[in-house]
What does this fold into?
Amino acid sequence: MRRFSFLLICLVCQFSISQQFSSKVIVNSESLNQTNNSVFKNLEQSIIFFVDKNQWSNDNLKDFEKIKLNILITINKYEDGFFNADFEFQAFRPVLNSTYLTTIFKYVDKNIQFSFNEFDQILFSENQFQSNLSSLLAFYLNIVIGIDKDSYVYNSGEFYFNKSKNILNLANQNNNSGWSSSSSGGVLNKFWLIDNLSSPNSKEFKDFIFNYHSNGLDLMHNNLKEAKNNIITYLSYLKPLKRRSPNSILLKILFDAKSDEINEIFLGGPEINTEELVNDLNYLSPFFSNKWNSL
It folds into this structure.
C-alpha cells in the first residue's frame, strides 16, 4: 500500500511539473450531416489531455507562465473512424509585467487525414511512429515550444525544432501523406517549415523573435518609446532573409502571427517617425500593405 501511494504521488508530481501548455480545443463538425456528435466531443477531450498532460519539456512552469494554445479542428469528412480535417494552431506567451498575451505562432494545416475511434487514447513515442494524429500534434507542439524558448533566450529552441524534424522523418518513413516536401504544392508545408526553422536560414528570424519579445514587448512596461524604436530596428534586420528567400515560410508565419499586433503598437502613442518602418514592412510583407499604410 505504501509503495502504491508513493508511485501515485510520483505520478501526480510528474504531471504537475511537466505541463507546458494550457490548451483549448474546438472540433467543428458543422459541415457534416452527423447526428451523433459524441465522437467529436471525445476527440476534443482526448487532444486536450494529450497536449496538457504529456511531458513536453522539463520546465516547472506556473500557470501564468504556460503557453496558451488554441487548436481549431474543422472536420471536412468523417466516416467509420476516418477523418479529413483542417487544423489551425494559435499559441500565445505572456508579456513581462502585464496581463497581455502575444501570439507567437499561427498556422493552418489543411486536409489532414487521420483515424480516431470514440474512446481511443492518443499515443505518442519519440522514436516510433504511432499515428498521424499524434505525430501531427507533437510536431506542432515542439515547434511552438521552440519558438517560445527563442523568445526568451536566443536560439534556445533548437532542441525542440530537432524533435519536430525527427517526428517528420518518422512519419515519412511510414509513407504517411502530408509530410513530404511536395505536400500542399511544395511551398508552405510541414517539411519546409521545420527545414527552415532548423537550418542556418533561420538566423534573422530567430534574431527577431528574441529581440522583438525580450527587448521590445517585454520592455514596454518600463520604456514604451525605447521598446517601439527597438522593434523598428529589429524589423529591419529581417531584410537579408527577404532578399535571400522572397517567399520565405518563416516571414509568412511571423507576419501571420504579428501583423495585427505590430499595427496596434504603432497606431498608439508615444508618436515616433514611422516612415522607415512602413517602407520596411511593405517590403517584408506586402500582403498586409493596407495595415502598414495606415501607420
